[in-house]
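User: Reviewer 2 asked us to show a designed sequence for the structure in our supplementary figure. I'm pasting the structure tokens here. Could you produce the per-position amino acids so we can include them in the response letter?
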């Protein structure tokens, strides 16, 4: 009899745990928002998340607050604070550990008008192996993040 009660309680516990997990991770909606990444910080007492603000235009009414549950994605996006980005997100039904219901799942850096000319310059410099090696050394020495931007021009 005891084994039967323990089995039933365990089964009920698993069903409740599964239902809770499903409700907390169910995507109510998803979408993409674009704007300038204004703020991104790591917060949380029990569960650490990145909380951020995206400026979609001018004024206080055009800002959007979001959370990033993936630490690796948050660390990657922190490097692009102040730049224009596309954020792909999912909206959750409930926010339990997070500040917002919006969980950013991926992002893409938007090209600014100057970046087109930068890519044109990179493609011209690629024609000379000597220039590529010399510029690569200088970029590594002074601004290593620029190297990734130059590599993105080659795609």
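Assistant: Here is a per-position design you can include in the supplement:
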């Amino acid at each position: 009899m005891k084994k039967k009660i323990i089995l039933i309680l365990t089964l009920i516990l698993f069903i409740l745990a599964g239902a809770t997990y499903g409700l907390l991770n169910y995507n109510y909606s998803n979408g993409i928002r674009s704007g300038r990444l204004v703020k991104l910080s790591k917060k949380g007492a029990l569960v650490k998340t990145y909380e951020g603000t995206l400026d979609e235009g001018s004024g206080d009414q055009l800002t959007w607050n979001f959370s990033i549950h993936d630490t690796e994605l948050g660390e990657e996006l922190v490097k692009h604070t102040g730049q224009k980005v596309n954020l792909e997100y999912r909206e959750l039904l409930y926010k339990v550990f997070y500040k917002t219901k919006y969980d950013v799942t991926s992002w893409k850096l938007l090209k600014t008008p100057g970046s087109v000319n930068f890519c044109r310059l990179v493609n011209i410099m690629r024609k000379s192996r000597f220039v590529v090696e010399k510029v690569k050394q200088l970029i590594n020495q002074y601004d290593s993040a620029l190297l990734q931007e130059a590599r993105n021009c080659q795609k």
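For the response letter, you might also mention the following. The radius of gyration is 23 Å. Strands lie at 27-43, 49-55, 63-68, 84-92, 102-109.
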